[in-house]
Structures are given as C-alpha cells and as structure tokens.
Write a structure and sequence with these properties.
The chain has one domain. It is mostly helical.
C-alpha cells in the first residue's frame, strides 16, 4: 500500500508544481489566460506520465 500512496503523492506534487509554475508565468511573464491554461493542463499529463512509470 505504501508504494501506491507514494506514487499518488508524487503525482500530485508534480501536477501542482506545473500549475503553480503556470500561474507564476502568468503573473511574471504576462502570459495570456489561454497560455496559462494550456500549461496548467499539461500538469495532468506530467502527473499521469509519472504514475504510468515513465
């Protein structure tokens, strides 16, 4: 059960990290809402890839 829990926590940390990075880029770099949303959605992809074992 521990490996599954660790995997899920790592997945969430990666996903949230990408989302926070997109929010910071929105504020600091002047990204549009669409650019920010696109990158934030990639957070789900990054988390999913980690969960898949890649």
């Amino acid at each position: 059960m521990v490996p599954t829990a660790v995997s899920q926590v790592v997945e969430q940390l990666l996903r949230v990290g990408v989302i926070l990075g997109a929010a910071a880029a929105f504020q600091q770099l002047g990204w549009t809402v669409y650019q920010t949303g696109t990158v934030a959605m990639m957070g789900a992809l990054v988390g999913g890839l980690r969960r898949g074992g890649f």
